[in-house]
Amino acid sequence: MAKIPDEAKKVFEGVIFDVYQWQQKMFDGTAQTFERIKRVNTAEMIVTQGDLILIQEEQQPDREPFLTFPGGRIENDEDPLAAAKRELLEETGYACDRWSLYREVMPIVKIDWTVYLFVGQDARWVQDPHLDAGEKISVRWVTLDEFLDLADSGKLTYFLEQFRTEFVRAKYHAPSREALRQKLFTASP
Amino acid sequence: MAKIPDEAKKVFEGVIFDVYQWQQKMFDGTAQTFERIKRVNTAEMIVTQGDLILIQEEQQPDREPFLTFPGGRIENDEDPLAAAKRELLEETGYACDRWSLYREVMPIVKIDWTVYLFVGQDARWVQDPHLDAGEKISVRWVTLDEFLDLADSGKLTYFLEQFRTEFVRAKYHAPSREALRQKLFTASP
Fold it and tell me: Three-state DSSP class for A102?
């Protein structure tokens, strides 16, 4: 719903954000300047090993330390799953052979920004992480119940709130918890 | 956490969005251009009358019709609660005498944007709505259970996902539902 119309003009190009404007016809026939942002798309991953989930303890230069899923920006023309695999290897040194798309969301009105959440199963350690100058990351493994507690309490802060809503539902609604458990730990076909 | 540092420079000024950049020192001593967006702050309102909650059925020129709370942009230097009262009167023709702040959230990393959610109680009809050329709005009153179902199913689409998480928790967790019921319907001191 936040897609930018074809006739819109790019009025600013930044590092992360581009700004577009167009003349939008109103209900009374007048026109107004409408404005939308295009943000680089991002991918996040729930990575599992047995019945455990990978959580990152992360620091960035301009923020307090935080807990998060692995994830990052999708480069120009990069396939979203390829970006997820690349980020996982760079940030944690792990790789997964079995992947599925959990959800694809355009979370914010007026911003053209898609977030992909992938599930990667059977994680195995491959190599030392290769971190950017702006990242400090360590890995922690938690159970599903520990994960749902982190999501419910808000301590897992960085992932998209749209996903968090589902994890809070799974904490308090047994059928939702079971559906989530199967998505994360049961072998895909 | 998404606050823009004082030394940042405004590199673009738009209708809704301004763009800021600064040189951020990395962990290894190098510097990179960091970028943040400043978006006009917004206020949303949960408005009640007896044990009912006000929901808007709304149309805008560039979107499908949707269900939402009343709300809108906070004008330059306008007090957030004053903006909430103004928007409520403009959009619905209702006014409330009893107000409280439910939550104040900065929802998106890398975007300086604050959303205020107010609760207005004892709504009374004052006058016909005064709608912008880009709005078509009608009002519907729902019970708390109907409201929680709308939030859980995703049919109430426009309000902030951070708030939706709380409403989903209230649907499935009785103590959270009772705390919400008191916030919405019990007289403030």
Answer: strand
Count of A–B CB contacts within 8 Å?
A: 110
Q: What is the pLDDT of residue B178?
A: 97
Residue A182 identity: Q
DSSP per position, A23-75? EEE-TTS-EEEEEEEEE--EEEEEEEETTEEEEEEEE-TTS--EEE-SEEEPP
ipTM surpasses cut 0.85: no
Q: What is the pTM of this model?
A: 0.82
Q: Please tell me the distance from the alpha carbon of residue B70 to that of residue B139, in angstroms, as a whole number.
A: 9
Average pLDDT over residues A22-37: 89
pLDDT tens profile A61-77: 777 888 999 999 999 88
Helix (H, G, I), strand (E, B) or coil at B17: strand
**CB < 8 Å to A177, chain B:** none
For chain A, give the mean pLDDT.
90
Q: What is the mean pLDDT of residues B168-173?
A: 96
At A12 the pLDDT is 95
Q: Which of A37, A61, A160 lies closest to B25 in CB terms?
A: A61
Cα A174 from Cα A17, distance rounded (Å) = 40
Of B19, B34, B132, the CB nearest to A12: B19
Q: Find out whether B180 and B167 touch, Cβ atoms under 8 Å.
A: yes
Least CB–CB distance from A24: residue in B59, B61, B162: B61
- At A59, list the tokens: 């620091």
User: Which residue of chain B comes nearest to A136, CA vs CA?
Assistant: B27
- Min Cα separation B97/chain A (Å): 31
Q: What is the pLDDT of residues A95-133, one digit of tens each?
A: 999 999 999 988 877 888 899 999 999 999 999 888 877
Strand partners, B57: B67, B138
pLDDT of residue A26: 85
Q: What is the pLDDT of residue B189?
A: 52
Question: Taking a C-beta distance cutoff of 8 angstroms, is the pair A68, A56 a contact?
Answer: yes
Minimal C-alpha gap between A117 and chain B (Å): 16
Give the one of B1, B21, B134 whose C-beta lies nearest to A26's C-beta. Answer: B134
Of B89, B82, B95, B88, the C-alpha closest to B69 is: B88
| Residues of chain B contacting A155 with CB distance shorter than 8 Å | none
